[in-house]
Amino acid sequence: MNYSDFQFLQFDHRPNGVLLITLNRPEVMNATNARLHWELTKIWGVVNDDPKTRVAVVTGAGEKAFSAGGDLSWITEMVGNADKVATVMNEASDIVYNMMACDKPIISAINGVAVGAGLAVAILADISIMAEEAKITDGHVKLGVAAGDHAAICWPLMCGMAKAKYYLLTADFINGKEAERIGLVSVSVPRAQLMDKAMEVANKLAMGSQQAIRLTKRSLNGWMNMARPVFESSLAMEMLCFMGEDAKEGVAAVKEKRAPVFPSTKV
Length: 267
Fold this sequence. Notes:
The protein is an alpha/beta fold. The chain has helices spanning 34-49, 72-78, 82-101, 116-124, 151-159, 161-170, 176-181, 194-206, 210-226, 228-241, 245-256; strands at residues 9-13, 18-23, 55-60, 65-68, 106-110, 113-115, 127-131, 135-137, 174-175, 187-189. A six-stranded mixed β-sheet has the order 1-2-3-5-7-10, sandwiched between helices.
């Protein structure tokens, strides 16, 4: 694939080999539909093979969101549909593994809300820079499905098991300051300084020893590679939940803007 093949990712080639990638569905807060989810599996191979790119910076279009998770109509199609669930399971795995396999460092500039698949990209970046005012949540359990996209492979490493369990089981939102405090993101800054900080770090990496930086990334990813069985189990459990009644109720509750009443809570 080439950069021109992407429909919902926008590209800006900056000096020093920095590539700015923007998730570009601002009318729906950059929520991932089927096409964007697929594109997020493919872009990292293109970046890896691009000799002109040394560092990738990924952010969301507009001021409100990095990515507000999965598009509701797309998620609705998944619930109870084994074929679609199998496709999404493969893609969710590819997003994680392809970001890890990309030799070039990836920086996320988390400008607003990040949930679900969008959060996976934001958190899996090698360096994550988050606006203090932005808010993130894994959010899976609120939809009636297990946390699977990315969290099991990296949250316990980043913020410890106690915090990982708390936020993944409650799906509480976390702002930028708290995310930095617990180690879930690298740095938080006021929103007005976000892109300047991201580009400052990107330029620093772009002018550093490319071999040393890329091999350091590869070495550190060894910790996450050890967690592959945990991740793959969590992903399978998430997809299993999409075949159940709780997911139907979770989607219905979001559509109707009400609190869910999950069948699994009924005696």
